Amino acid sequence: MLxxxxxxxxxxxxxxxxxxxxVFGVYSPGQPVAQLAYLGxxxxxxxxxxxxxxxxxxxxxxxxxKDMGLVTQVFDERRLAPLYGHLAIGHNRYSTTGSxxxxxxxxxYRSVGDAGFALGxxxxxxxxxxxxxxxxxxxxxxxxxxxxxxTTDSALVGELVAREWPMEPRSDGRDLELALxxxxxxxxxxxxxxxxxxxxxxxxxxxxxFWPLVLGxxxxxxxxxxxxxxxLDIVGAHYVxxxxxxEMVVIDASGLRREHxxxxxxxxxxxxxxxxxxxxxxxxxxxxVHAARQRMGVELARQAPVTADMVMPVPESGIxxxxxxARESGIPYGDGLVKNRYVGRTFIQPSQxxxxxxxxxxLNPLPENIRGKRLVVVDxxxxxxxxxxxxxxxLREAGASEVHFRVSSPPYRWPCFYGxxxxxxxxxxAADLSVGEIREYLGVDSLAYLDLDRLxxxxxxxxxxxxxxxxxxxxxxxxxxxxxxxxxVLEEPVLDLGAPTIASP
Length: 505
What we know:
Blueprint: E1 22-27, H1 33-43, E2 51-57, E3 62-68, H2 71-74, H3 77-80, E4 87-93, E5 108-112, E6 115-125, H4 128-134, H5 153-163, H6 175-183, E7 189-196, E8 201-205, E9 214-218, E10 223-226, H7 229-235, E11 237-242, E12 247-252, E13 255-261, E14 269-270, H8 272-277, E15 283-284, E16 287-288, H9 289-303, E17 310-313, H10 319-329, E18 337-339, H11 352-362, E19 363-365, H12 367-370, E20 374-379, H13 386-397, E21 402-407, H14 435-442, E22 446-449, H15 452-459, E23 466-467, H16 469-472, H17 483-490
Parallel strand pairs: 14-23, 17-20, 20-21, 21-22
Antiparallel strand pairs: 1-4, 1-10, 2-3, 2-4, 5-6, 6-7, 7-8, 8-12, 9-10, 9-11, 12-13, 15-16, 18-19
Helix pairs in contact: 1-7, 5-6, 9-10, 9-15
């Protein structure tokens, strides 16, 4: 169990929660699998925007194309046309372990003798130091000093699989399966994998099922693996079932050939899949994510009512909860902010003034809807808080008479080690501040967070089936911090807590 550590400062970054990555796999002879993988990744773009990649096999050769950027920046018809084959995997990356660089883009490819395999990973391992030591990789060694060609835990898994590859090729071609059977029980933390060799597609989910992975069927007999059910819809596949926690599924020319349990399941899906990560049109635990988010807003209105003139969301993530809040409270729903969907993340801006301008480029108020009104502003979460603070300042500037902030999740107080990019206490606004202190920092008239029991009730799934570590400090997989890890987690960046700067247009 991890203990909270009081910190006196807040971070300068205005990033939101870093998404878990998106993975996709398709086995469909006679179909344009590279194009299907492209569409699947496009549907999963919200899960990672740093890099994208596709690996395709024609039965003899695996070809990997990957680069930094969005799916539409990495791939076009010219790059997809030569990717001919009968199976493919794809990956959208948001870095958690390893820096944002081309070397760390996925899928990871490893050549083993005359064979090879590719791997895409959603999640984060917690025992990488132990695994690396077992491979003879000393602390501080760079990728150039090892046989691993990147700094990610995903590449480490690739190396583990390669070293467990049978010395003599098997006549049935099950080399990758057998290597995985030896490696998977040694992994700790969060992992949903899609893997492929030249003739089979494999899906794997960790024993807790921290991150989703679903199995679908294409008309005509093909099979699909995807991080979310919404990606199945985009490629015209029919949902079959979830890959179960602790399960490996194998698909080849005979269809879904093998369903192998490598560990006892203890389901602990990340609760933030319901709150924030997953697309609204995705289904988790048999429940519509969009409907669950609306129920969160209903619960929030019951828990923290307020007298106001309009309920408005912070787009896009706050929209369903704001709709639920408005319906339950009877307060009219309206739009107070317009989002520019073509602006990327703003945290790379070098100065506070530039960061303020970046927020203004992404979100701009509608003064005619705001002026003189008492507003209830609904968002899904507050992690680092600086963007929220700037949004509140914009609403005040646009003439709001009162701003009451409502959050459809509890205070985010503890870092995640399983696949979200929130690995430092110093980056979490609520790590050592009370709700009252956060209210003062944001500059709002009132502030309320949804209670954890109400949040899990809104999902209509069992409360025991979720990981709530970032909200409750209850970690399903114990985390042992090395000195290096502790320095990263406990680092204390400094932020001036004076008045927020909002750049004028």
